[in-house]
Amino acid sequence: MKFPLIYEIATKNAVKIDISSTLNEAIDLMYRYNHRNVIVVDKNKFFILTANDILKLKLKGYDFSIEISNIKLEILPTISKDANILDTMPFLEDSIEHICVVDDDGSLFGILTYTDIISHIDPESLMENYRLADLMNMNKNIQKISKDTSTTDALRNMADNDFDCVVVLKKDLPIGILTTKDIMDLIKRGPDLNLPVSDYMSSPVESLDENSTIKEAINFMKEKHFKRIIITNKNGEFTGLILQKELISLSYSRWAILMKQYSTELNEINTVLEQKNKRFEKMAFTDQLTGLYNRYKFTELFVSEYHTMAQRDNKMSLIMLDIDFFKKINDKYGHNIGDRVLLQMSNILLRHLRNVDIVGRWGGEEFLILLPTATLENATTLADKLRIAIQDFDMDEHLKVTASFGVTEVKIGDDIKSAVKRADDALYEAKNSGRNCVKAKVD
To answer: How many domains does the chain have?
Structure first.
């Protein structure tokens, strides 16, 4: 399940106005963009001026030529544009339906509404059997009026109780709704507000049956672009109203339940995958018989160490060694003993090398050792110590084996191919010199 980042879903072209502007300028801006609110900017603080605020001020007889700074407005919460949609959870208990999205410098990036949030909820993650009728708070804070109620009374009720809508009923059947969007239209037209609310309500009303699922409700809101849904029973009678905010809260709760249910299983899967990944990585980078680095990984490490050497102006050397007469061991004792010799040879090398040294099986009975910070002289001395350790070791079946060594110093301009070629030439010279010896090659 993917949770989008805030900047992916926020409305970037928020309608905003400076706090030093007048109320009339704010109202003109709301009319121009057909918005029920406008963001008020005071440096890095953000407020919201809503249609409900305009209604309250009008009922109180305010002069709309005054600056917005003279009006007490509620400050909006802010959230970083790089946050996750799950980070909006703490704001769901707020009465504010907008969250300001800010850039790294605290400036306004955009605005996030409940519409934006609900549009990015995946309905498939919700309980399809969860019905609207199961919501306990569906009937709270809902203003119901008759069609004969005067528009003035309806508006005053909305202003006094901070309702963003009232539902108009006729014999318990919803026949209309008056919302904050209608308020802006009324303020603009200035009609006779003593007329019944039925003259100005939005009608007919689209509703949803209380037996509809949460998934159906979310899809209904998305399709209709509604902020709220009027709920009816099987007889079409009004039973309640559900807001976007309530559906969002329920969705988050469902997400939390799902994640809790599967967290243990996911952790187990991740553990298995990590173990497999480590095993596959080891198989890709190491020789299966000896456990040393294989040719591919050794080459990769050579490149890395070469760059370090060049940057720090260090020395670095390379040793190639080959088990003498290894074919005879396989022919006489069998490949199982031959494998044991290779494994024991690897252990000898590891015991006598530094932690920073890199050893790999180059192929067959050939091994390569990379010695960071080691001069040609240092490498030659070490190679001879390794030669003696191998010569003195009792292998399986009390075998005595020896090895020949070729040593070279890695130079600026070398790659793995040129460096190995010189070490191999030195090794060839050691074999031609009777084996069980060390030869170095500079050029």
So the answer is: 3
Q: Evaluate whether residue 28 is within a structural domain.
A: yes
Tell me what pLDDT residue 25 has.
Answer: 94
Domain membership of residue 240 as a residue range: 125-248
Q: Do both 332 and 435 map to the same domain?
A: yes
Q: Same structural domain for residues 57 and 82?
A: yes
Pairing of strands 16-18, 37-42: parallel
Nearest to 184 by CA among 92, 39, 51: 51
- In what side-by-side order are the strands of the sheet with 108-113? 78-80, 98-102, 108-113
CATH number where 363 lies: 3.30.70.270
Residues 6 or more apart whose Cβ sits within 8 Å of residue 55: 155, 158, 159, 183, 187
Q: What is the CATH number of the domain that holds 229?
A: 3.10.580.10
- Residue 405 banded pLDDT, cuts 50, 70, 90: very high
- Among 8-22, 137-151, 167-181, 383-397, the range scoring the smallest mean pLDDT is 137-151
Residue 160 has pLDDT above 80, yes or no: yes
| 428, 316: one domain | yes
192 and 219 in a single domain? The answer is yes
